[in-house]
Amino acid sequence: MNKSIILQDIGEGIDKIEVTDIIVSKGNNVKIDDY
């Protein structure tokens, strides 16, 4: 959840949040850093 907030801050909000939702479901937080 905190990761998606950070991504929102970047300004690429909606797309990134959807992607993070999927990634978080998989449990791969590292992938979020990749984005």
TrEMBL record:
This is Lipoyl-binding domain-containing protein.
